[in-house]
Amino acid sequence: MDFRGALARLRRLPAVGFIRQVGETYFTQIAVVLLGFVNSILVVRLLGPAGRGEFALAATLAAVGVQLSNLGLHSSNTYYVSRDRTALPVLAGNSLLASGLAGLAALAAYLVLKRWSRLAPVEDPLLALMLLAIPLGLANLLFQNLLIGTQRIRAYNVIDLTTRVLGVLLVAATAPLGIVSPEVVFAVVQAAVVISLVWMFLHLRPAFEGRLRASLARLRDGLGYGLRAYLGSLAAFLVLKSDIVLVSYLRGDVETGFYSIAVGLADILLMLPGVIGTVLFPRLAAAPDLRERWRLVRKVLAVMLPGTLVALVATLLMARPLIWLAYGRAWDPSFGAVVWLLPGIGCLAVNMILMNLFASCGMPRIVVVSPLLALVFNVAANLVVVPRLGFVGAAMTSSVAYALMLAMSLLYLKLRLFRGLCG
């Protein structure tokens, strides 16, 4: 591995702002995670176990609603606005239209749940706030991706971090004001989402040039692209998370607890590749041709490959003492899962960059087929291996599944893209 050459390329990248944007976004995401932890502590202390349970259920269901209702439009927003900045007014209008439709669906759900109240997961007014959070969260997500697509990365980070800090402060302010309840805490969190949405809209508004409008034709195009992204992302997410469910079902809570430590560590290690992909994707989509996209990807991989190797080796050496320090020696068995999961994390990190390349080429079927095949393999292998080897077997099959995804991506790259690059 040419570490000296990689470092030389790393020094040249800040000239185009790429490393700066990645660094800002990465540290912003770390801060967001820490703020989420602080917010969780505040909610527990303010509401107690029962109130925390109500709040967590409402927040989780709202997040699921946003995930199910976005239909990949956030990905299509980034893709289309990266390729054509003049499409911004229409994409913003469609984002508001899609959020309005989600709002109508939420209103219909509210009426149904009020009519058959036994089906409602929470009671009013928390039920109404939970359903309102879905269109608000969807609009926020769609406008965030418009900021990313127009490469306003710093604005995206500043707005995201500032409004999350504001959300924590608003939650903390409920106690001295004497208005603590799950409904109030949930409402102030949503107030921060509204502020974020308004801030992003005002930031983008000068680029609308008074031409904000919706287009059903553009919305259909966005759904065509977005649904492929949606299915691919959902399958990739299930590859990552299905192990926990299967280990719980096949081996019980204790082994699930051990395995969750390894999965949590994987989530941390994959944050940086995810951020790199977020910053890289609009650049790839805006590139004039396939050759230029591949040049950008090679430049990123030339730095990322040795960096990933160093990170994996460092994690291997440090994981056991960190587990002892954070959780105690009783959690030492989880180290076995970490060892077997690390190769898969390396494969997945590289594959995330290649998936961004494919997505910038119009979202070919490999983006959906690859994670679907890996998911089928992972579930089938876990059903055979986990009863025999336990949670360590789940880590083994996961690494093989991630390696399979990377192998399919590399094969597709060789068979389809290299012809365009070299032909």
Topology, pairings included?
Layout: H1 3-12, H2 18-69, H3 73-83, H4 88-115, H5 126-149, H6 153-177, H7 182-208, H8 216-251, H9 253-269, H10 271-286, H11 290-327, H12 334-360, H13 366-389, H14 391-422
Give average pLDDT, whole number: 85
DSSP summary: helix tally: 14
Indicate how many domains the architecture comprises. 2
- Unreliable stretches: none
Q: What amount of the residues lies in strands? A: under 5%
Shape: globular
Helix and strand string, N-terminal first? HHHHHHHHHHHHHH
- Work out the helicity level: over 70%
Find the structural class using helix and strand composition: mainly alpha
Rg over CA atoms:
22 Å
Terminal CA distance reads 28 Å
Biggest beta sheet attributes: none
Q: Number of DSSP strands? A: 0
What does this structure look like?
With 423 residues, the chain is mainly α. It has two domains: 18-214, no CATH class; 232-423, no CATH class. The protein has helices at residues 3-12, 18-69, 73-83, 88-115, 126-149, 153-177, 182-208, 216-251, 253-269, 271-286, 290-327, 334-360, 366-389, 391-422. Helix 2 (18-69) packs across helix 7 (182-208), helix 4 packs antiparallel against helix 5 (126-149) and helix 9 (253-269) packs parallel to helix 14. The protein is globular and about 50 Å long.
